[in-house]
Amino acid sequence: MIDANALRAVCLDFPGATEEFPFPRHPDVSTFKVGGKIFALTTLTDTPLTVSLKCEPELAERLRAAHPEVVPGYHLNKRHWNTVSLDGDLPDRLVLDMIEDSYDLVVASLPKAQRLLLDWPGEGRA
Protein backbone atom coordinates (compact mmCIF):
# COMPACT_ATOMS: atom_id res chain seq x y z
CA MET A 1 0.00 0.00 0.00
CA ILE A 2 1.29 3.45 -0.90
CA ASP A 3 1.54 5.72 2.14
CA ALA A 4 1.96 9.50 2.34
CA ASN A 5 5.76 9.41 2.23
CA ALA A 6 5.76 7.09 -0.78
CA LEU A 7 3.14 9.22 -2.56
CA ARG A 8 5.21 12.38 -2.09
CA ALA A 9 8.39 10.60 -3.24
CA VAL A 10 6.72 9.17 -6.36
CA CYS A 11 5.25 12.51 -7.37
CA LEU A 12 8.49 14.41 -6.83
CA ASP A 13 10.52 11.82 -8.73
CA PHE A 14 9.17 13.01 -12.10
CA PRO A 15 11.34 15.48 -14.05
CA GLY A 16 10.43 19.07 -13.20
CA ALA A 17 7.93 18.10 -10.49
CA THR A 18 7.43 20.45 -7.56
CA GLU A 19 5.29 20.42 -4.44
CA GLU A 20 3.36 23.55 -3.53
CA PHE A 21 0.79 24.53 -0.93
CA PRO A 22 -1.23 27.17 -2.82
CA PHE A 23 -4.44 27.27 -0.76
CA PRO A 24 -4.17 29.63 2.24
CA ARG A 25 -7.48 28.39 3.67
CA HIS A 26 -6.22 24.79 3.37
CA PRO A 27 -2.49 24.97 4.13
CA ASP A 28 -2.07 21.19 4.38
CA VAL A 29 -3.22 20.51 0.80
CA SER A 30 -0.23 19.48 -1.33
CA THR A 31 -0.26 20.07 -5.04
CA PHE A 32 2.29 18.38 -7.24
CA LYS A 33 2.95 20.37 -10.37
CA VAL A 34 4.95 20.28 -13.56
CA GLY A 35 5.30 23.39 -15.68
CA GLY A 36 3.10 25.22 -13.18
CA LYS A 37 0.17 22.84 -13.73
CA ILE A 38 -1.21 20.38 -11.18
CA PHE A 39 -0.96 16.65 -11.87
CA ALA A 40 -1.69 15.42 -8.31
CA LEU A 41 -3.54 16.92 -5.38
CA THR A 42 -3.66 15.46 -1.87
CA THR A 43 -3.73 16.10 1.85
CA LEU A 44 -0.92 13.86 3.02
CA THR A 45 -2.17 13.85 6.61
CA ASP A 46 -5.71 12.65 5.80
CA THR A 47 -7.05 9.26 6.71
CA PRO A 48 -7.95 7.64 4.49
CA LEU A 49 -5.20 8.95 2.23
CA THR A 50 -6.54 10.03 -1.16
CA VAL A 51 -5.00 11.62 -4.22
CA SER A 52 -6.73 13.38 -7.10
CA LEU A 53 -5.24 12.67 -10.51
CA LYS A 54 -5.88 13.88 -14.03
CA CYS A 55 -7.19 11.16 -16.34
CA GLU A 56 -8.45 10.76 -19.90
CA PRO A 57 -12.28 10.87 -19.64
CA GLU A 58 -12.98 7.42 -21.09
CA LEU A 59 -10.35 5.77 -18.89
CA ALA A 60 -11.61 7.72 -15.87
CA GLU A 61 -15.06 6.20 -16.31
CA ARG A 62 -13.67 2.68 -16.77
CA LEU A 63 -11.53 2.98 -13.63
CA ARG A 64 -14.52 4.23 -11.60
CA ALA A 65 -16.67 1.35 -12.84
CA ALA A 66 -14.00 -1.25 -12.03
CA HIS A 67 -12.72 0.02 -8.68
CA PRO A 68 -14.78 1.39 -5.76
CA GLU A 69 -11.62 3.23 -4.58
CA VAL A 70 -11.77 5.47 -7.67
CA VAL A 71 -14.44 8.19 -7.71
CA PRO A 72 -14.99 11.41 -9.67
CA GLY A 73 -12.54 14.14 -8.68
CA TYR A 74 -13.44 15.87 -5.44
CA HIS A 75 -13.98 19.61 -6.12
CA LEU A 76 -12.47 19.15 -9.60
CA ASN A 77 -13.70 18.71 -13.16
CA LYS A 78 -15.23 15.26 -12.79
CA ARG A 79 -14.78 14.48 -16.48
CA HIS A 80 -10.98 14.83 -16.29
CA TRP A 81 -10.11 14.04 -12.66
CA ASN A 82 -10.44 11.04 -10.36
CA THR A 83 -9.96 10.91 -6.62
CA VAL A 84 -8.30 7.66 -5.59
CA SER A 85 -8.38 6.16 -2.10
CA LEU A 86 -5.00 4.62 -1.31
CA ASP A 87 -6.26 2.71 1.73
CA GLY A 88 -8.21 0.17 -0.32
CA ASP A 89 -7.35 -2.87 -2.36
CA LEU A 90 -5.95 -1.15 -5.44
CA PRO A 91 -2.67 -2.69 -6.55
CA ASP A 92 0.28 -0.33 -6.07
CA ARG A 93 1.21 -0.79 -9.75
CA LEU A 94 -2.20 0.54 -10.83
CA VAL A 95 -1.87 3.57 -8.55
CA LEU A 96 1.65 4.28 -9.83
CA ASP A 97 0.41 3.98 -13.42
CA MET A 98 -2.42 6.44 -12.70
CA ILE A 99 0.05 8.93 -11.21
CA GLU A 100 2.34 8.59 -14.23
CA ASP A 101 -0.59 8.96 -16.64
CA SER A 102 -1.65 12.14 -14.86
CA TYR A 103 1.87 13.57 -15.10
CA ASP A 104 2.06 12.60 -18.80
CA LEU A 105 -1.28 14.26 -19.59
CA VAL A 106 -0.14 17.50 -18.01
CA VAL A 107 3.30 17.44 -19.66
CA ALA A 108 1.69 16.71 -23.03
CA SER A 109 -0.30 19.94 -22.68
CA LEU A 110 2.81 22.06 -22.06
CA PRO A 111 4.49 24.03 -24.85
CA LYS A 112 7.05 22.01 -26.78
CA ALA A 113 9.97 24.05 -25.40
CA GLN A 114 8.98 23.09 -21.84
CA ARG A 115 8.54 19.43 -22.79
CA LEU A 116 12.01 19.39 -24.32
CA LEU A 117 13.53 20.92 -21.16
CA LEU A 118 11.96 18.10 -19.14
CA ASP A 119 13.50 15.50 -21.44
CA TRP A 120 10.07 13.88 -21.40
CA PRO A 121 10.06 10.40 -22.98
CA GLY A 122 6.64 11.09 -24.48
CA GLU A 123 8.12 13.82 -26.68
CA GLY A 124 9.45 11.20 -29.07
CA ARG A 125 6.00 9.57 -29.30
CA ALA A 126 4.16 12.70 -30.40
From TrEMBL:
Q: Which Gene3D superfamilies match?
A: 3.90.1150.30
Q: What is this protein called?
A: MmcQ-like protein
Q: Note the superkingdom of the native organism.
A: Bacteria
Checking PANTHER family in the record gives:
CYTOPLASMIC PROTEIN, CYTOPLASMIC PROTEIN-RELATED
InterPro entries in UniProt:
YjbR (IPR007351), YjbR-like_sf (IPR038056), YjbR/MT2646/Rv2570-like (IPR058532)
Any one Pfam family match given in the protein's UniProt record, by short name? YjbR
